[in-house]
Amino acid sequence: MSPFLQSTAWWSSVLTPYRWLICKMLTLDTLPTCSLAEKDIHNLKRVGETYTAPLDLKVSQLGRMWFHIRMGFERQMALLQANRDLISTGVKEFNVLLNQQVFTDPPISEEAMVTVLDDWVNFYTNYYRQHVVGEEQERDRALQELRQQLSTLCAPFLDKYRAFLKSLSA
């Protein structure tokens, strides 16, 4: 396996259960070989079939291995899609929360609003922590993505709140 694939956490999570199988099947040392001297020299068809049989077996084993890797990949992609759906739902709900906010008088300070927004992001992240699926790395990645998207939504809200504070002082 190339160093790039080994360093990629996602590939590692997909291929880890199959690593021993891949290594076993891709090493050519395990292929049994034979020489024509060991076989019936007069029956070349039989020798050819005998000689290529391990290669045919190797190809079918690689096919089965690829099938299992593909199934693991599709399962991983399904988990990713489930997490993407959760992230999308969380972002929509958070956006609704931000849009429902009414700035009242007396206002809170900008620093206090930043604290409130951080608390909301933490609240949503902790809530969705219970619902994300997959291995630990995948769950962590999904939660990090959720946190990043929620924080991105906070920036325009803070700009709007700053404008509100300026309008009060003007």
Written account of the structure:
Helix 3 (19-26) runs antiparallel to helix 4, helix 4 (44-99) runs parallel beside helix 6 and helix 5 (110-129) packs antiparallel against helix 6 (136-169). This protein has one domain (3-169): Methane Monooxygenase Hydroxylase, Chain G, domain 1. The chain is built from 6 helices and no strands. Mean pLDDT is 74; it is low at 2-11 and 28-39. It is mainly α and 170 residues long. The chain is rod-shaped. The longest helix is centred in the middle third of the chain and has 56 residues, at 44-99. It has helices at 3-7, 9-15, 19-26, 44-99, 110-129, 136-169. One of its GO terms (cellular component) is cytoplasm. Keywords: Chaperone, Cytoplasm. Monomer. Forms a heterodimer with free alpha-hemoglobin. Does not bind beta-hemoglobin nor alpha(2)beta(2) hemoglobin A. Its main location: cytoplasm. GO terms for molecular function: hemoglobin binding.
